[in-house]
Write a structure and sequence with these properties.
This protein is 49% helix and 0% strand. It has five helices and no strands. This is Nucleoside diphosphate kinase-like domain-containing protein.
């Protein structure tokens, strides 16, 4: 195991979040998956989550108080931004 961690080809993990609007359309979701795979990423685990507003706010806390934070929380929970 230690030799794997020292290897220049060690596995790196990347988190991909796909917005609810894309997940709602099977063809768009498939296109996103194909784009990920065509860029030589390997999908090792996939899970569908339903985030509450509080979950999104916690995830984007570093952007708190900025307009971008409001938009990301709205997109992540399908809220309408006024």
């Amino acid at each position: 195991m230690a030799s794997i961690l020292r290897s220049p080809q060690a596995l790196q993990l990347t988190l991909a979040l796909i917005k609810p609007d894309a997940v709602a359309h099977p063809l768009i979701l498939e296109a996103v998956h194909q784009q990920i795979l065509s860029n030589k990423f390997l999908i090792v685990r996939m899970r569908e989550l339903l985030w509450r507003k509080e979950d999104c706010q916690s995830f984007y806390r570093e952007h708190e108080g900025k307009e971008v934070e409001v938009q990301k929380v709205a997109l992540g929970t399908r809220m309408k931004v006024s």
